[in-house]
Amino acid sequence: MGSNQDGRRSSMVLWFVLLALALFWAWSLLNPSNLTQVNYSEFRRQIRLGNVEQVTVTGSRIEGVLNTPSTSVTERGDTVQFTEFLTHVPSFGDEDLLTMLEDQGVEVETQPQSDFSWWPFLLMGLPFILFLMLGYAFFSRMQNQGQGLFSIKKSQAKLYDQEDAKTTFDDVAGCESAKEELKEIVAYLTKPESIHRLGGKVPKGVLLVGPPGTGKTLLARAVAGEAEVPFFSITGSDFMEMFVGVGASRVRDLFKDAKEASPAIIFIDELDSIGRQRGAGLGGGHDEREQTLNQLLAELDGFEPTEDVIVMAATNRPDILDSALLRPGRFDRRVTVDLPTQSDRAEILKIHAREKPLADDVNIDEIARSTPGFSGADLENLLNEAALHAVRANHDEIMSGDVDEAIDKIMMGLERKGLVLNDEERRMLAYHEAGHALVAAVLKYADPVHKVTIIPRGRAMGVTQQLPEKDKYIYRREYMLDRLAVMMGGRAAEDLIFDTATSGAENDLKQVIQLARKMVLDWGMSDRFKNIAFGGRREQVFLGEEISQRREYSEDTARSVDGEIEKIIDRAYARAVETLTEYRSALDEMAERLLEREEMPGAEVLKILGLDREAAEPDFVDTSNDTSNGTSGGTSDSASGNMSADGTSGGTSDNTSDNTSDEVSDGTSMAASNGLGDVSDDGAASEEVDESTSSGTQQKPVD
After folding, report:
1. Do 295 and 252 contact (CB within 8 A), yes or no?
2. Is 590:439 a contact under the CB 8 Å cutoff?
3. pLDDT tens for residues 191-236?
4. What is the DSSP letter of 701?
């Protein structure tokens, strides 16, 4: 980096010197001497006075020397004394000039006028000079980037410096299964005879798969630090260039370098940028990318047994990779790097807290419990935000309050201090959030209430935040039904208290219908379709094989599915209304406290209700088979989120509209990242009221 900056400084100095010389040269052409310019009348007067000693005539230009100094007034009005002067013969000529000079005995010298002029030369040469300057700058820049004219097809991979900051597996918390798999790779490279003696072969390709921020690249750096062999690192986008054939050439050059340095490791980050399925989607194929992929496939399958080169790659979209890339003999081992568990989160937090002074009231285990669904990158960002908040508050250490504020900021967004609601809107908002919180506190299978607030944050006008007691990976039907009822708690409170409906329940309703649809279509949790999954593949058109999304059931079945969804939602709403009616006095008290303090912890919610959570609903009564009046049924926690096979409970706040992806959420923002209505491994459940416009003018809560 330092050498590049020095080179740029030297180049700038060179160009500055050249420009100064050019300006000086042009100035010297325009001002060849320091003669005093006098008008022609003054020249004739000096001749008549006999004060002119000698003149040199070049065309119409006359230079002369006076016998005695004379004075002249410049254009600025200054008076100057001169002996040598310059003037020009008028265009109409002066027939008497030579006679006057002879009469006064002036020495006359004539010189021929030159036909050469610098101006045509400068005007004709200037474009050429500019072209040379631009060409020099272009090739210098390419050379600095390692992309000279003759090296553009060379590999852009960076060789890991073993003397640089060394990363080991001790710097990676959690991911124990992934580390065990990768330690086998390290063992093979450092002691290959231990595997060869039993006839074993190490996989030629290892694919690291997992959500963003889970540490795939960090694990690759740890392998580089542990293996102590040449480690070539490159991203998928580095293969692509504007010139045809460059990508394939760079692949060949990369593998050539790795084979010469074997045993070696090649790490390709973001493999999906070049390994995407060929000819997929509506846009058809991409010839240059596909040629690069074809060359990569050939190199992966063309290793000789003696060439100890292992290819590692990372991606968070394995579903769109070409099948030829994943077959045995290429990337034949897949290592899943999942979101960390609660114990893993605690270990990750300890690593990131090494250089941060934490106060005694900061409990790492409690932070880990409060951040389900957070990736390693999220946890690092969390402690960094806490440190920044501590700096703003002039704390000497990171306090527990700083961490809580950082969690709220990440999960729910920045506090909007300039937003002012009128009394009616605040009262509706308080009852809306109190409705969510009360139903969540009463129902047995709903996640515990962590915090209720009507302080606007991000796009949310209010939030009911729930945190699971522990990570969840399998979800019961009862949990889903409770979750639905909690999400309907806000709308039920509006109907019960104000006998109206507001736009504040928009996101609630979106979450409810999507969760209910998944219960019917994907999880077989309806009365009629108990053991049938109609979901099929609902991939995005532009990323998968399908030219359009298709439905694998008839119109009659679709109508029945809609009926089952409506039945589940009606029962969830009825159960929310029934719960709020039973605890009406507690609902009023919670709303009043929210109006007074704007925020209330979950423990205070339980205290107002006067019940233990464990005894709140001792037996779950499933009335889903009772079709009368649409009563009963489900409850839910209040959050948005996606449910995946590995999900860690809860879900997130619903302040983002309606992204309905079924993919595992990346956990980057608890309050905004995942889709509505699915159960996510993003963790903390929360109900928010978003802002939106009503009639194009007034902002109203939208949940």
Report:
1. yes
2. no
3. 777 777 777 777 788 889 988 888 888 888 888 888 777 888 887 7
4. E
Q: Among 317-321, 334-338, 451-455, 639-643, whose mean pLDDT is lowest?
A: 639-643
Sequence-ordered list of residues with C-beta below 8 angstroms from that of 562, at least 6 positions apart, any chain? none
Distance between CA atoms of residues 677 and 651, nearest Å? 9
Alpha-carbon span 609 to 507, nearest angstrom: 27
Query: What contacts 24+ positions apart, CB below 8 Å, involve 53-59?
Result: 53/106, 53/107, 54/106, 54/107, 54/108, 54/109, 55/101, 55/106, 55/107, 55/108, 55/109, 56/109, 56/110, 56/111, 57/89, 57/108, 57/109, 57/110, 57/111, 58/110, 58/111, 58/112, 58/113, 59/113
**CA–CA dist 263, 515 (Å, integer):** 51
Secondary structure of residue 121 in the 3-state scheme: helix
Sequence-distant (≥ 6) Cβ neighbours of residue 364 within 8 angstroms: 346, 349, 350, 353
Whether pLDDT at 627 is above 80:
no
Helices 342-352 & 376-392, crossing angle to 10 degrees? Answer: 50
DSSP 613: S
- 522-548 per-position pLDDT tens digit: 999 998 988 888 866 554 544 444 445
The angle that helices 489-498 and 555-582 make with each other, rounded to 10 degrees, is 60
Q: Does residue 650 come out as left (phi exceeding 0), alpha (psi in the -120 to 50 range) or beta?
A: left
Residue for token digits 């990570």?
A: 471
Dihedral of the alpha carbons of 70, 72, 78, 83, in degrees to the nearest 10 = -50
Both tokens assigned to 168 = 């080991």
Helix (H) or strand (E) holding 107: strand 107-111
Q: Is the four-CA dihedral 488, 494, 499, 505 of positive or negative sign?
A: negative
Tokens of 124: 């004709």
Average pLDDT over residues 638-642: 34
Q: Look at 46 and 684; give whichever has higher pLDDT.
A: 46
Query: How big is the CA angle at 205 (ends 203 and 211), to the nearest 5 degrees?
Result: 120
Q: Which two tokens stand for residue 657?
A: 């509209």
Please state the pTM of the whole predicted model.
0.64
Nearest to 310 by CA among 168, 155, 226, 188: 188
Alpha helices in 302-422 (DSSP H): 323-326, 342-352, 364-369, 376-392, 400-412
Helix axes 400-412, 376-392, angle to 10 degrees: 120
What would you report as the CA-atom Rg of the chain, rounded to the nearest whole angstrom? 40
Let me know: does 58 contact 89? Beta carbons within 8 Å. no
Residue with tokens 């379709």: 529
For residue 7, what are the contacts with CB-CB under 8 A and spacing of at least 6?
Answer: 144
- Give 107-129 pLDDT, tens digit per residue: 888 887 766 566 666 666 667 77
Helix (H, G, I), strand (E, B) or coil at 438: helix
Quickly list H helices, 110-245: 118-144, 176-190, 193-196, 216-227
pLDDT digits (tens, 9 = 90+) for 586-609: 999 999 999 999 889 888 999 999
Dihedral sign (CA 683, 685, 689, 693):
positive
> Among all residues, which ones are annotated catalytic?
433
CA pseudo-torsion sign 43, 48, 54, 60: positive
3-state SS, residue 232: strand
Q: Distance between CA 515 and CA 481 in Å, rounded?
A: 10
Give every CB contact of residue 247 below 8 A, 6+ residues apart in sequence: 239, 240, 241, 274, 288, 289, 291, 292, 295
Contact 579, 442 (CB under 8 A): yes
Burial, 347: exposed, middle or buried (Cβ in 10 Å; 0-12, 13-18, 19+)? middle
**Which residues make Cβ contacts (< 8 Å) with residue 565, sequence separation at least 6?**
513, 516, 517, 520, 526
Query: DSSP labels for 38-97?
Result: --HHHHHHHHHTT-EEEEEEETTEEEEEEEEEEEEE-TTS-EEEEEEEEEE--TT--TTH
